[in-house]
Design a protein that fits this description.
heterodimer, A: mainly beta, five-stranded mixed beta sheet, four-stranded antiparallel beta sheet, 9 strands, globular, B: mainly beta, 11 strands, 0% helix
């Protein structure tokens, strides 16, 4: 699995959009970008994933650059409950359930 | 629908003892994976089982073993516990209906003294 690089921490004001970057310059053609988050002492929670097109669901949007070497997770209206560690992972999804977690980005939402 | 469940929630063991952790996947999920999360780090992959067969193994010693039962529940066993085995042990299940996304349980907090 390709390696990812994320900033260790970020702050965002409540109600504003939180933009979390991830670099994955060694991503291969069949690897998807996945985002998970982990709220303190809970199991990680799946957020969103994508291959090359931008994706949106009820939780977030995922923007992947055209060269696929980086991506941004966007939480459009951050709330205090979005305070968590966010992990960016790249992997081939089918037949390979292994997730390789890095240290992630600790996002703190400021009231 | 019930999510992934794990038991026990917490337990305390002494060095040298062994421990068994249990996981019940989401109904319909046939794949179960185990992860170890040491304080301050991201989860580290230990095992994956699919249809009762081991499909993947992480870089963990042979003291760690697992199995999956016909009902797709799973056990993780750790023998000869060391202080460094203190961690949050996470179980995740996945299924074709959800595109193989991993759904995690709340974890078992193991403390070795």
């Amino acid at each position: 699995d390709a390696k990812t690089t994320q900033p260790p921490s970020m702050d965002c004001a409540e109600g504003r959009a939180a933009n979390l970057p991830c670099n994955h310059s060694t991503i291969s053609g069949n690897e998807y970008v996945y985002w998970y988050r982990q709220i303190h002492s809970q199991g990680p929670q799946y957020i969103i994933h994508g291959l090359k097109n931008n994706e949106t669901n009820e939780m977030a949007s995922l923007i992947i650059t055209e060269d696929r070497k980086s991506s941004t997770l966007i939480l459009p209206h951050a709330t205090l409950r979005d305070t968590a560690v966010y992990y960016c992972i790249v992997r081939v999804p089918f037949g390979n359930e292994k997730l390789t977690f890095g240290t992630g980005t600790r996002l703190t939402i400021i009231p | 629908d019930a999510g992934v469940t794990q038991s026990p929630t917490h337990l305390i063991k002494t060095r040298g003892q062994h421990v068994t952790l249990r996981c019940s996947p989401i109904s319909g999920h046939k794949s179960v994976s185990w992860y170890q999360q040491v304080l301050g780090q991201g989860p580290q992959f230990i095992f994956q089982y699919y249809e009762k067969e081991e499909r993947g193994r992480g870089n963990f010693p042979d003291r760690f073993s697992a199995r999956q039962f016909p009902n797709y529940s799973s056990e993780l066993n750790v023998n000869a516990l060391l202080l460094g085995d203190s961690a949050l042990y996470l179980c995740a299940s996945s299924g074709i209906e959800q595109g193989y996304e991993q759904y995690f349980g709340p974890g078992t907090r193991l403390t070795v003294t």
